[in-house]
């Protein structure tokens, strides 16, 4: 039989219950907190008093009660603890700062330094420092930092491997260097996994327990959420779908470096195939799609083949994990016209129809997912209880302070 909670454990459970009620129901009075949590009024008041002393909650006004009585309303304080979510993409770097209640305080982005390596690390540190400084956030308040990155993190070296679209990350201890520069340990997670979690928290996949997120842009990636859990695999490389042997010879040099599928349907692959088909020079994959819409026959052919190869990969995913929902994201995948074409082909290929949606968060999906992981880690640090395996549920989208 499990052991009964100690006095310390009982206190932790009480604090966790009050925190969760504040997270999801503020502004709220002490009496309402006691009613929601089932705790006594005395215990509830003791927890609130302790939270006030720690700077975790703040009073935000009063509400009228019966016969003129009033009650103080409380909410989680923005000063109670901060997290940083960072999305390092091949094209853009995005950083967001949020408080303990999940309110985004500030967000900034800029083109990723094309030199990669130490220059990208310096850029992350500079943009993060600027965001904190501009919002008067002392570094000691930033309790958790999560970085969304392409590729796979080597747990021994701290390097980022299998990331051909950002140079120099496979030879650096990215985890250690960033931790030193930012003054807080940094958690690295695959960018597609975090984009998936972003859609589950604030996007198009809320309340869905079986989701596949297929992203096409600079590269190709897959995030899997099966029975309410993120699938990572033995070495964190689950979802490296770009290496599927679809679309060409998987043993040729380009395919071996990037992966066969990514070599064909990643942004550089789409532009390369367009030029090889006889199209004129283009600077971005977006131009290929624009020319297809204008009727350029070479662009139409290349876009159609890209959709066909994407549908083949999606069919393999559907047959393997049986998702309820397939989300298409990335600069290519989230295009509504492209997603419609993929969906039509899938109806012919897959014996089991699956709902398909395009990402509603767009390029913000990764940074939103990074914030969700950072918040969970922060909440667990403050209010994790060993006897409870379940994590605290995150606050719902678009929560706003009563003072805003």
Describe the protein's architecture and organization.
- By secondary structure, the protein is of the alpha/beta class.
- The protein has three domains: 7-76, Orthogonal Bundle (Arc Repressor Mutant, subunit A), CATH 1.10.10; 81-195 and 364-383, 2-Layer Sandwich (Nucleotidyltransferase, domain 5), CATH 3.30.420.40; 205-359, Nucleotidyltransferase, domain 5, CATH 3.30.420.40.
- It is 43% helix and 20% strand.
- It is built from 14 helices and 15 strands.
- The protein has helices at residues 7-25, 30-37, 41-54, 117-134, 174-182, 191-202, 253-258, 260-265, 267-276, 285-293, 297-321, 330-333, 336-349, 365-383, and strands at residues 28-29, 57-64, 70-76, 82-88, 92-99, 104-111, 142-149, 152-153, 160-161, 186-190, 211-216, 220-226, 229-230, 325-329, 355-358.
- The strands form four sheets. Strands 6-5-4-7-10 form a five-stranded mixed β-sheet. A five-stranded mixed β-sheet has the order 13-12-11-14-15, sandwiched between helices. Strands 1-3-2 form a three-stranded antiparallel β-sheet.
- Helix 1 (7-25) crosses helix 2.
- The radius of gyration is 24 Å and the shape is elongated.
């Amino acid at each position: 039989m499990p052991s009964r909670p100690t006095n310390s454990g009982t206190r932790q459970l009480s604090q966790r219950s009050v925190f969760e009620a504040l997270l999801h129901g503020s502004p709220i009075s002490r009496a309402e907190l006691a009613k929601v949590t089932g705790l006594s009024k005395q215990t509830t008041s003791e927890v609130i008093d302790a939270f006030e002393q720690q700077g975790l909650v703040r009073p935000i006004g009063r509400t009228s009660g019966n016969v003129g009585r009033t009650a103080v309303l409380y909410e989680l304080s923005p000063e109670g603890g901060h997290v940083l979510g960072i999305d390092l993409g091949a094209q853009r770097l995005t950083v967001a700062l949020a408080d303990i209640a999940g309110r985004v305080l500030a967000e900034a982005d800029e083109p990723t330094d094309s030199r990669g390596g130490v220059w990208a690390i310096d850029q992350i540190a500079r943009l993060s420092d600027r965001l904190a400084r501009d919002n008067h956030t002392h570094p000691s308040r930033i309790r958790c930092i999560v970085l969304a990155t392409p590729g796979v993190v080597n747990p021994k070296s701290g390097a980022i491997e299998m990331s051909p679209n950002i140079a120099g990350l496979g030879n650096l201890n990215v985890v250690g260097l960033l931790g030193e520069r930012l003054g807080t340990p940094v958690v690295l997670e695959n960018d597609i996994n975090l984009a998936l979690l972003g859609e589950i928290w604030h996007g198009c996949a809320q309340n869905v327990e079986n989701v596949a997120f297929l992203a096409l842009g600079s590269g190709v990636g897959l995030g899997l959420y099966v029975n309410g859990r993120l699938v990572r695999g033995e070495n964190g490389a689950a979802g490296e779908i770009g290496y599927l042997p679809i679309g060409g010879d998987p043993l040729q040099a380009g395919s071996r470096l990037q992966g066969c599928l990514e070599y064909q349907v990643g942004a550089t692959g789409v532009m390369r195939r367009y030029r090889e088909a006889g199209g004129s020079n283009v600077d971005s994959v977006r131009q290929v799609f624009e020319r297809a819409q204008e009727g350029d026959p070479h662009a139409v052919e290349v876009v159609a083949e890209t959709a066909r190869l994407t549908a083949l990969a999606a069919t393999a995913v559907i047959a393997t994990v049986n998702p309820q929902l397939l989300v298409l994201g990335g600069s290519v995948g989230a295009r509504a016209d492209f997603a419609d074409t993929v969906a039509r082909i899938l109806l012919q290929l897959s014996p089991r129809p699956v709902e398909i949606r395009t990402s509603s968060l767009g390029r913000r999906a990764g940074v939103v997912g990074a914030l969700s992981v950072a918040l969970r880690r922060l909440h667990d640090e403050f209010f994790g209880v060993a006897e409870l395996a379940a994590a605290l549920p995150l606050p719902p989208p678009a929560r706003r302070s009563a003072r805003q």
